[in-house]
TrEMBL record:
Pfam families: EF-hand_7 (PF13499). Keywords: Signal. The keyword Chaperone does not apply. It comes from Siansivirga zeaxanthinifaciens CC-SAMT-1. CDD domains: EFh (cd00051). The keyword Signal applies. Residues 28-63, 65-97 form the EF-hand domain. GO terms for molecular function: calcium ion binding. PROSITE patterns: EF_HAND_1 (PS00018), EF_HAND_2 (PS50222). Residues 1-24 form the signal peptide. This is Calcium-binding protein.
């Protein structure tokens, strides 16, 4: 089967455009931890207090107990405030948990398919 050079070029251009669009969407979906931190730090002191965290997150209708547990996990040194570094580490730990859960789910599905 012969493919004309024009069709090949058109296919390459469409493929390239699609990949660029997909990459741009991936960049937009990734939250910027520093921007998130600044939005949560209402008094701009460089730390997020539990009250600041609850006030901003409460809009998402997350139960207070869950917010307090999330905050506690981020506050690595348990001093009552979350620094930028602690916040970034907390986000990274959350991402790692999500990845681990997805991996475990995929493995379970693979095992079920084999049976």
């Amino acid at each position: 089967m012969k493919v004309s050079p024009l069709k090949l070029i058109a296919f390459a251009l469409v493929s390239f455009a699609f990949s660029q669009t997909a990459m741009a969407q991936d960049d937009q979906k990734k939250p910027d931890p520093e921007k998130m931190f600044k939005r949560l730090d209402a008094n701009k002191d460089g730390n997020i207090s539990l009250e600041e965290f609850k006030n901003k997150k409460r809009k998402r209708e997350i139960p207070v107990e869950k917010l307090e547990a999330m905050y506690s996990k981020m506050d690595a040194d348990s001093n009552g405030s979350v620094t930028m570094e602690e916040f970034k580490l907390g986000l990274a730990k959350g991402k790692d948990k999500v990845k681990a859960m997805k991996k475990k789910k995929a493995e379970t599905e693979d095992m079920e398919e084999e049976n």
